[in-house]
Structure formats: structure tokens, C-alpha cells
Amino acid sequence: MSPATYFYPNNVVQSNVSTANGEYVMKFSIGTPPLLDIYGIVDTGSDLMWVQCLPCVQCYKQVKPIYNPTSSSSYKELSCQSEQCHLLDTVSCSSQQLCNYTYGYADSSLTKGVLATERITFENSNNFFDNVVFGCGHNNTGVFNENEMGLVGLGRTRLSLASQILSQLGANKFSYCLVPFHTDPSIASKMYFGNGSEVSGGGVVSTSLVSKEDKTYYFVTLEGISVGNLSNSSKLIPYYNSSGAISKGNMFIDTGAPPTLLPKDFYNRLEEQVRNAIKLTPSQDPRLGSQLCYKTQSMAGIAPILTAHFDGGAKVPLIHTSTFIPPPVEGVFCFAMQPIDGDVGIFGNFAQSDLFIGYDFDSQMVSFKPTDCTKQ
User: Fold this and answer.
1) Dist CA 295 CA 171 (whole Å)
2) What is the C-alpha to C-alpha distance for residues 343 and 345, in angstroms, rounded to an integer?
3) Closest alpha carbon to 153 in 235, 44, 251
4) Are the C-beta atoms of residues 58 and 140 closer than 8 Å to each other?
5) How confident is residue 171, by pLDDT bands cut at 50, 70 and 90?
6) 248: how many CB neighbours lie within 10 A of its CB?
7) DSSP structural state of residue 167
8) Bridge partners (DSSP) listed for residue 122
9) Mean pLDDT to the nearest integer, 72-99
10) Considering the entire predicted model, what is its pTM?
11) Rounded CA separation 154/43 (Å)
């Protein structure tokens, strides 16, 4: 990949992060001069960064103006022959020899357009990066909402925005703090890239990143989840696979997935212990399906603390705002974890809230620190 030019007077590059209907969006500007503030979904579970682009073949409704690449002097479309074009598997060559892309997600959302490079500016006009590869999305469909102007892939491959920025900063680490679901969108927390983004101080625990065949995901090893007081080890529910063992890299951390998804057998054993620990009777509202829900105005003092036990002795506490979420039905809270088929789970963004989470590619570690992210 041709190197990006960049200017960063501060040691750490930062961006505001705020809530958006179960997702989180980070703010940056695109173009030269900085043409437009973009609010893109923060997604550690994918690599491509893309924004909605004019002219639209099919764009979902967006409140803010859609980016117009013809207005930017730094926009440059990539050719089929470019090295960057081959960073994605799902590309094709247009009649103009441009690098067309198609990129899909697990929820069937889809973006199609042209791979290009552009200037990206963070926080203030002094923190900018040129020649950042992104998708100029002319055809975007799925479950995106009107406040989301695109998506910021922060996965582990060379294509992700994190990798592109960090390769230039010479410090292979980034971090973020997500405020709880339903926090006022005007209250922003931060995402940090580079030196100064370390998660440090009292209460920090760390676990190893695991490399697997899929290079995008941040795989970690979850040994189990305990319910209630940590001193009662009998309440630890081990995360066994179908062979009765704990697999290395059995879960990945995904800011783009709201609920935490767990294999059915593990989920069922965990839900049973959560039910036993809560003195209320579960709601039987048919609108909520099979979810474990309770009719109450708050789960404070009702929901037990869950602790995620990661490889290496990292015990990460999950408080009630991370484990029970209000659905569209008023006066109800539902368990923010769900069962899935298969052995690999997803540590979703509900569970990640009020944790300062840092990724260090030099040490191949991810760190967690309980933090009030609204005070960041």
C-alpha cells in the first residue's frame, strides 16, 4: 500500500464516540478542505471504512448531507491494478478500470461502490491523514439508521482504518470507551489511536489476542462467566465447546454487534443462573419473544454482577447497565445476551460499555478497565 501522508502534532489521535440506537458512531471529517463531518459506525468486527457517496444509486435515508467526492481536491478513485484494490476479496473491475467493491455484513446489510483514497481529519484540522483507503458507497442497504453516515472498520487487516492510521503513527495500539446504551447522544466518549492510548492504572486486566484463520476479528479466549459474588466459585459457568473443552479464541470482540452472542448450551446454563439470582418473575409479554426480561423501572440492585473470565486471569465485571437493556417495550429490561448455533461467541457492545478497552498489537494483548465512560 502506498504510504499515507499525515500530520499529528499530538501524541494521540482522538475522535468523539456517541450512541446511535444500539450502535456507536465516531466523528471525523472527510475531504479537502475538510468538507464534511462524518458519523460512522464503530465496528471492530469488520475492516472496510465506507461512507455514503453521491451520486446515489440507492442510499438509505441520512439526516446530514451526503458526501460529494467531486467537491474534494484530495479524493482519488483506485484502479483495478492498484495494490489497495486487492486488499478486499469482493472487488470487480468497472469498464473504466476502477476498483468496484461489494461488502456485506452478518445482518444482510450491504454496501457497494468504488474503492478510493481521501484525506481524513480528526478532532481538529491538525490531525489529518492523506491517502486513506475507503469505500465510496453509492448503493447501501440494510439496517442502518438516519444518523449513521457510513461505517468505520477497525479490524485487524491492513485495510482497516485502525491499521492504516497506526502504521503511520509508529505505535500499534488504540483504545476506546463506550457509554452505556440509551446515554444521551450529546454525551460523547473517546476513541484514541497511537501513543497515549494505553489503558493503564489500577483495575486494568489483560488477556491475549488469538490469531486464527479469519484475520479480521479480535479473538480472545473466554473461560467462563460467573454470576454474583466472585468469592463463590461454584457459580462460574465454564464456556465448554461441543467436545467439552474450552477452545482458544472462542469469542471475538465486536463493537458493531449490540448483544453478546453465546453458544446455546453455554447460554442456557448462564441464563439459568441469572434467573436464579434475580428475585423477580420474568415477564411473559409475547412482544418480547423468548428473551429473558423483567418488568421494572431499573435493574440496579436487582441484576447480579456478571464477571467474564478471560484467559490469563483477566476478570472483567459486567454491571447491570451492560447486561440488561431496555427494549422498545416501556418499563421492561431484557438480558443483553442471546443464544446462537456454533462454538464461537461475540462479545458485543452492550457488554463493552463502561469499560476502557485497549488493543496493543506489539504485545498482542487486549486490556480492560472499569471506567465511567460518560466522564472521559
Assistant:
1) 47
2) 7
3) 44
4) yes
5) confident
6) 13
7) H
8) 127
9) 96
10) 0.94
11) 6
Please say if the pLDDT value at position 154 is more than 70: yes
List beta partners, residue 370: 355
pLDDT value at 2 more than 90: no
C-alpha cell at 239: 464456556
State the pLDDT at residue 124: 61
State the cell numbers at 294: 423483567
With contact defined as beta carbons under 8 Å apart, do 358 and 279 qualify?
Answer: no
Q: Which residues contact 187 (CB under 8 A, 6 or more apart)?
A: 18, 179, 374
Closest-CA residue to 315 (of 207, 175, 197): 207
Q: What is the distance between the alpha carbons of residues 51 and 136, in angstroms, rounded to a whole number?
A: 6
Residue 54: predicted pLDDT: 97
Catalytic annotation, residues? 43, 254
According to DSSP, the residues that pair with 182 across neighbouring strands are none
Name the amino acid, one letter, at 312: G
How many angstroms separate the CA atoms of 168 and 87, rounded? 18
Please, are residues 162 and 193 in contact by the beta-carbon 8 Å criterion? yes
Per the listing, cell 489503558 goes with 199
DSSP state of 168: H
- In this prediction, residue 9 has a pLDDT band, given cuts at 50, 70 and 90, of very low
pLDDT tens digits for range 279-296: 999 998 888 889 999 999
Strand pairing partners for 308? Answer: 225, 316
CA distances from 23 to 114, 143, 152, 242, 277 (A): 25, 11, 12, 31, 29
Q: Enumerate residues 6+ apart whose C-beta is below 8 A from 276.
A: 227
The C-alpha cell at 332 is 421492561
How does the average pLDDT of the chain come out, rounded? 93
Rg of the chain (C-alpha set): 21
**pLDDT exceeds 70 at position 234:** no
Residue 283 CA to chain centroid, in angstroms?
30
Instruction: Give residue 355's pLDDT.
Output: 98
Model pLDDT, residue 328:
84
